[in-house]
Design a protein that fits this description.
Helix content: 40-55%
Mean pLDDT: 83
Shape: globular
CATH architecture of the largest domain: Orthogonal Bundle
Number of helices: 8
CATH class of the largest domain: Mainly Alpha
Distance between the termini: 42 Å
Strand order of the largest sheet: 3-2-1-4-5
Radius of gyration: 20 Å
Low-confidence stretches: 141-147, 161-165
CATH topology of the largest domain: DNA polymerase, domain 1
Structural class: alpha+beta
Strand content: 15-25%
Oligomer: single chain
């Protein structure tokens, strides 16, 4: 079973992503965030195996993955419905909705009616708080293992470098998502904007969503 993937982003459109690991294999993952193509990303994975298919669902944190797996224990809730809940509502909001028996919050997701929301509350009441024990933080890169008798200065420099790269990658993802949301509000379609935004972000030193939006609008 695959539980975690780390690699280069070959493709990402906010619905699916393809990550190439160091082994050279590219994994296609359902992932609800747009990643910067060419960057390094790390995603927690729920590996769904059926008789005629295998599907990978990606999550930014271990807590989100564990909530997804818990939702699959609910009668009538399949992988697509569970992933739609997490993507549209969010982990903490789902936990609160179950604890407060707020069916209206759960039914905001397309395709989930009152009956399904009631079943989630019934089946997960008293259980859902367990997912809070898992980390809600995301991971991007891992530092290389340190050899025996390491040079302490080199260790410090390597750790600082990895932390800086993590910060830059996370900031790029945030800028890209903010810019895409703004362009969608202006009436532009995602499939037209995403490749342009990814190319511009990869080729320029951009620190604010406004800068990316300005450059994208000059090309559309």
């Amino acid at each position: 079973m695959i539980g975690f993937l780390c690699g280069e982003v070959l493709f990402s459109d906010g619905q699916e992503s393809v990550l190439q690991t160091t082994s050279g294999i590219g994994y296609q993952v359902y992932y609800n965030k747009v990643l910067v193509e060419g960057s390094q990303a790390a995603i927690f994975i729920a590996h769904i195996i059926k008789e005629d298919s295998e599907t990978l669902y990606g999550f930014h944190s271990l807590r989100a993955k564990k909530l997804f797996e818990l939702l699959l224990t609910v009668k009538g809730i399949g992988p697509k419905s569970a992933y739609g809940l997490i993507s549209n509502i969010g982990v903490n909001e789902i936990i609160n909705a179950v604890n407060l028996e707020a069916k209206a919050t759960l039914t905001k997701v397309p395709g989930l009616g009152g009956k399904g929301a009631a079943q989630i509350i019934l089946d997960l009441s008293g259980k859902i708080d367990r997912v809070k024990m898992y980390s809600d933080s995301s991971k991007t890169l891992r530092a290389k293992p340190v050899m025996q008798k390491p040079n302490l200065i080199e260790m410090f420099e390597e750790t600082t470098y990895v932390e800086n790269v993590q910060s830059v990658v996370a900031n790029q993802h945030e800028i890209l998502n903010d810019a895409l949301m703004a362009c969608k509000e202006l009436g532009f379609k995602e499939d037209k904007i995403i490749p342009i935004a990814q190319r511009i972000l990869g080729a320029n030193n951009i620190s604010k969503p406004e800068q990316l939006i300005h450059l994208v609008l000059k090309e559309v």
